[in-house]
Amino acid sequence: MFTHTPSVSPSSATISGTPGFNDAGIYTITWSVSDGHGGNATASTGLTVNNTNRPPTLTQPSNMTVNEGTSQDQVLSGTDPDGDNLTFALVSGPSYVVVTQLTPTTANARVAPGFNDSGTATGRLERSKVLQHHREQRGSSGGACLAQQHDRDGGSHGRPGLHGVGSGW
Question: What residue ranges define each of the domains in the chain, with the CATH number in brackets?
Answer without folding.
Answer: 2-49 (no CATH), 57-150 (2.60.40.10)
